[in-house]
Amino acid sequence: MAASEMREEKLGEQTQEIIDSLAEWLCTAEFRVVKEQSWELCTDKERNSRLKNLLAEPHVKDKVLETSRQRIVRISGPQPGNFGSAQGPAYIYPLRIHDTTRPSVGSMSLRVGWFLEVKNPAFKITPGADCLIILTVNSNVSQTTSAVGKFEIQ
Fold first, then answer.
1. Where are the domains of the chain?
2. What backbone torsions phi and psi does residue 26 show, to the nearest 5 degrees?
3. What angle do CA 27, 30, 36 make, to 5 degrees?
4. pLDDT digits (tens, 9 = 90+) for 84-117
5. Which of 64, 107, 122, 146 has minimal Cβ neighbours within 10 Å of its Cβ?
6. pTM, whole model, 2 decimals?
7. Which residues of 72-81 are buried (b: 16+ CB within 10 A; e: fewer)?
8. 125 pairs with which residues across the strands?
């Protein structure tokens, strides 16, 4: 994936504090396997209440449109997670990096405290991270699946 299809930006200190709190919670949160040997989806009953403060932060709230979809995913591997959104950019917010891993999207390493905007309609996240992914969804589309990996947007 070309670097021109991705953009990385540092988050503010207050946003980082919220992410640190989420990272602690994610260690015990419930996840459901979506793609065997690849990735899981957070299904914890506290997910929405835990995300509320982060979704209200600058650099996050402007990405959350009425039609966008937000998911917390765990890319546990050993295979990468395949995701995408053909209707607009995707935003990846690493919340926790797993010990002894170096997850990335293309040539860009994922770093807690930074977010990544991906303009490519399909992308892979290598194993070792829990991330908030915000996908742009066209308001005329009620349900779709990604170009790769069946990351459901509902």
1. 3-153
2. -60, -25
3. 100
4. 887 889 999 999 999 999 999 999 999 999 999 9
5. 107
6. 0.86
7. bbbbbbeebb
8. 81, 105
Exposure of 52 in the CB half-sphere (CA atoms within 13 A)? 4
Q: What is the DSSP string of 102-135?
A: --EETTEEP-TTEEEEE-SSEEEE-SSEEEEEEE
Spatial CB neighbours of 145, under 8 Å, sequence gap ≥ 6:
151, 152, 153
We find that the CATH architecture of domain 3-153 is Sandwich (2.60)
Report which of 16, 117, 29 is spatially closest to residue 57, judged by C-alpha positions.
16
Tell me how crowded residue 135 is: count the other CB atoms within 10 A of its CB: 24
User: How far apart (Å, rounded) are the C-alpha atoms in residues 63 and 42?
Assistant: 20
Alpha helices by DSSP H, 27-149: 47-55
Q: In angstroms, how far is the first alpha carbon of the chain from the final one? A: 26
13-26 helix and 47-55 helix, angle to the nearest 10 degrees: 170
- Residues of the chain under the 50 pLDDT cut: 141-154
Tokens found for residue 104: 């990335």
